[in-house]
Amino acid sequence: MSKLFTPIQLGGITLPNRIVVAPMCQYSSDDGSMSDWHFAHLASLAISGAGLVVLEATAVTREGRISHGCAGLYTDRNEAAMKRVVDHCRRLSKNPIGVQLAHAGRKSSTHVPWEGRSALGPLDNPWPTIAPSALPYDTRPEWHTPRAATVDEIKAIVTAFGAAAERAARIGLDAVELHASHGYLLHQFFSPLSNKRTDAYGGSLENRLRAPLEVAKALRDAWPKDRCLGARISGHDWHEEGASIEDTIAFAKELKKIGYDYLCVSSGALLGQTRYTIGPNYQVHLAEAVKKAVPGIAVRAVGMIADPDQAEEIVASGKADMVAMARAFLDNPRWVWHAAERFGLTVPVPPQYERAAFKAWQGSKLARPQNFEAAVKA
């Protein structure tokens, strides 16, 4: 028996298993509109067998994009382009599909990763950035300093999140995930390292949570309750003066009160100069802490999860209700099929690929002898 391959109810939808494809920025959009690259990339993930596929971090305003290539949901053109991709995926799989909504704040206006990830220069068509406080993400001199957002600008961003959720609902997506981690705008409000405001949006934890919770409520109001609403939150800034796990738990409790269906607990990426050790399960203890402290809401673990036995242990032991993986799926889009083999299970496979299934193709035993040995023992 595998806990990883049991269904889970999230709000009004059911995932056929506890495996989630985490959002992965592709930096391949045109003014926020998804391209043919997404058509191919997401089709492959749609047939992966994962219980839920979450589309990449999608900006709610043009200025909220990380780079010129980031996806968005702020124009009709963006909406039509994403619908084209989602409709294609729907023709391939019935498994749920969601989208992560985000605003990058002071981490906006940067190069795509393969061009260096640094801030856009004056000849790169940069744009002004905003943040809770006028503090740059990175100490390097070429990094831009954001403008501290006015209260009116904060309110406009709250409205933009709600409008993007309405677009996602029209597209027909099953889930929306609020991005409040990885050093982006809502995380910037949450952390005392990046929020030095002295008004109602800064200072105490209650004040630092004000903007993230206003956005969270706007999404809850805009998103249909018969679908699924979740959030990715940050469990640790990896800095002694940063937000604590107790702060994260307080945030999680408020999201549960608002009516969120799940929480994905990540960490880090708030400061460009911060360094921390990354290894297998390095964030799982954060998800476990939230799960223990906030019963009644599903919790997802993420971060260097790559092996089926590793994923199974996280879920079966009760550390988290689900696991999410990103690069593991870039490396192996058939991860779910191979994990099922490990546990002696079968999962639906497109009929076009059935002749390569574990029990149908002798070559699979050569390609994955560990799975074959496990299946024999099962």
Describe the structure in your own words.
The chain has 378 residues and is of the alpha/beta class. The protein has two domains: 8-347, Aldolase class I (TIM Barrel), CATH 3.20.20; 350-378, no CATH class. Helices cover 35% and strands 14% of the residues. It has helices at residues 36-46, 76-92, 151-171, 185-190, 205-208, 210-222, 245-258, 284-293, 308-316, 327-331, 335-342, 363-367, 369-377; strands spanning 8-10, 13-15, 19-21, 52-59, 97-102, 130-131, 147-148, 175-180, 228-234, 262-266, 298-302, 322-325. α6 (210-222) runs parallel beside α7 and α7 crosses α8.
Jot down its keywords.
TIM Barrel; eight-stranded parallel β-barrel; 378 residues; two-stranded antiparallel ribbon; 13 helices; 12 strands
**Shape descriptor:** globular
Question: Major sheet, described briefly?
Answer: 8 strands, parallel, barrel
Between the first and last Cα atoms, what is the distance in angstroms? Answer: 10 Å
Q: Return the CATH class of the largest domain.
A: Alpha Beta
Contiguous helical run count? 13
Spans of 5+ residues with little confidence (pLDDT < 50)? none
How many β strands by DSSP? 12
Structural class: alpha/beta
The CATH architecture of the largest domain can be given as Alpha-Beta Barrel
Q: CATH superfamily membership of the largest domain, which one?
A: Aldolase class I
Strand order of the largest sheet: 3-4-5-8-9-10-11-12
Strand fraction: 5-15%
Radius of gyration: 20 Å
CATH fold-level topology of the largest domain:
TIM Barrel
Q: Report the mean per-residue pLDDT as an integer.
A: 96
Fraction of helical residues: 25-40%
Order of helices and strands: EEEHEHEEEHEHHHEHEHEHEHHHH
Count of structural domains: 2
